[in-house]
Design brief:
270 residues, alpha/beta, Ubiquitin-like (UB roll), Cytidine Deaminase, domain 2, four-stranded mixed beta sheet, 9 helices, globular, cytoplasm
Length: 270
């Protein structure tokens, strides 16, 4: 509501320090192609060009970052419109996809494609030689925690990072939405031409099936989370060949799929 206070009206007990924290930004962000709105999400208004690329990739609108010709971020009073210009063939493919749907595109889970979109097939990850040491899993989780300035300030956003053995945490993106944070990360990797197949994606949230789908589309062989997975997330990871690591909080973790990629500390396997 307009004019609402940005600090608590009342604080009880030892909550004064938390009450002084800034609040996380959240606003409506539209993703548009060729002047037509495709989706509107509540998101943190940071790294929106990365968001445009990552969303386009994980939704199957593009297959490669080079298929986007331009991204313009246009601010309005009530939100932001991220206007994406595609190469001609991808623009035509998207138009045909829209015509095949019975309802409005909206969130991407509407009309005739809703069930298929929710449980869509994902690429099979090969990466037979990729290995991650046990201590590197813990190091990746710790590195993500250290590289989240918005979370440190607000305690109200999710993070997604890319960890490459030998190089550490190469990129981190944050957002009030866990899916948005992961899309932003995937977009950043694509724009920087960083091979997601050479490292692990680490997220600060639970593992739902959508998170596994996005990681598989990005090509990452390992997905690490600090919280637990859903049953469908585990099934999807198994089918996609993704190593799924959960409840990783720096003091241990559980491996649900692809355990052959996780080796003892100091091992020279692979």
């Amino acid at each position: 509501m307009a004019g609402a206070p940005l600090k608590p009206l009342f604080t009880h007990g030892s909550r004064e320090e938390a009450a002084d924290r800034p609040l996380a930004a959240e606003m409506a962000v539209a993703i548009s192609y060729g002047g037509s709105t495709h989706a509107v999400m509540m998101a943190t208004p940071e790294d929106l060009i990365d968001f445009a690329y990552g969303f386009s990739l994980t939704e199957g609108i593009i297959r490669d970052a080079r298929e986007i010709e331009a991204v313009d971020v246009v601010a309005f009073d009530k939100g932001i419109d991220v206007q994406i210009t595609l190469q001609a063939d991808r623009s035509e493919a998207l138009a045909a996809r829209r015509r095949s749907m019975a309802g409005p595109v909206g969130c991407g889970l509407c009309g005739l494609e809703s069930i298929d979109a929710a449980v869509r097939d994902v690429p099979k990850i090969a990466a037979p030689e990729f290995r991650l040491q046990v201590d590197e899993v813990d190091a990746a989780v710790e590195a993500l925690s250290r590289a989240q300035p918005l979370f440190a300030a607000t305690r109200a956003v999710h993070g997604a990072g890319f960890y490459r053995p030998g190089d550490g945490m190469l990129a981190v993106r944050e957002d009030v939405g866990r899916h948005n944070a992961l899309d932003k990360l995937i977009g950043a990797l694509a724009r920087e031409d960083i091979d997601a197949g050479a490292g692990a994606i680490v997220v600060s949230s639970r593992l739902s099936v959508e998170m596994v789908q996005k990681a598989a589309i990005a090509g990452s062989p390992v997905l690490i989370a600090i919280s637990a997975p859903t049953a469908l997330a585990v099934e999807t990871a198994e089918a996609a060949g993704v190593t799924l690591i959960a409840t990783a909080r720096g003091d241990g973790f559980s491996v649900y799929t692809g355990a052959d990629r996780i080796v003892a500390a100091g091992s020279d396997e692979g």
